[in-house]
Structure formats: structure tokens, C-alpha cells
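Check my protein:
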Amino acid sequence: MRNLFILGIKHSGKTTFARLLAEKLHIQSIDSDDLIAERIKPLSVRDYFREHGENNFKEMESTVVREYLEDDKGPLVMSLGGGASDNEVLIKTIKEHGYLIYLRRKESDMLPVILKHGIPAFLDGNDLEGSFHQLYKRRDSIYLEISDRVIDMGPYRDRGETLEAMMSELGDLIT
């Protein structure tokens, strides 16, 4: 089995379902943000992005993921940050190492979920809806283009039921 890389908009369920999927498949799960956090201690991922800027963040993200994958640990499920769509070097690296799975949720469902955790740096505080709409539209388009499989998450159902639906969609990629 090849590696599975879980992509999607911030708070779309990437980490949760990557872990559940990995557990079901009896393989390891890792979150790219955890790899970054380990490298940039004591800063948080959010603080690193703010202090060092988007380009340095993308370089750090690409580097830690590439290094982790070069140390072949067997098949894995890796959840990626919501901005992975904007990191061409990262996308090239992960395409060489496995399948890209886009957990797609409706735009209208996502902004309220994101705002529960505070206003992220990538949104314009003066135009939250407009800036999110533009971001979602751009990232959704990229994810649809680059992904090997798209899983429409819809409104969340029971996690177990959602996981079974995902596994059914992934079928040939996980056997």
C-alpha cells in the first residue's frame, strides 16, 4: 500500500479522519503540523507563520515532510495543513510518495467552524466572508485538480459511519 495524504480546508476533519483511517488500516498516522511544531519549538505553528511569513513557512513544511518521508517508515496516513494547496514543492514531494485524498466540505459549512477557533492570519478581519470565499474557491479548485480521490464529507455524520464511507470511496487505494 502507498502512503495516503489527507488534504482539505482548515478544520475539515483531516487530522481526525487521518488518525481513524490509519487505525483502521493498522498503519501509522502523522500530522504535518506536528512535524513542523517539533522543529520550531517553542513557537507554535501559527506564531511561526506570523513571525517568519508564508514563504518561510512553506519551505519549513516542505522540508520536514520530505525528511520524514525519506526515512521510509512503511505506509502511513499523513494529514496536511489547510494551506498545502499553496505549496507546490510540498505537493510535488507528496505526489511522489503516495495518493492525495481531498476531504471536501461545503464552503458554507467551513467558515463558522474556522471562526470558532479565532480569526486565522490568512483571513481579512475586515472582510471575513469575502476573504474566505476567495480562499476557498482557489484552494478547492487546486485540490480538485491535484487529488487522486475526492471525498465529499457533507455535514458530519457519526464518525464511524463517515469512516466506513471514506474507506468505501478509497477502495482500490487501500488494498
User: Anything to note?
Assistant: Residues 3-166 form a domain with the Rossmann fold fold (CATH 3.40.50.300). The mean pLDDT is 90.
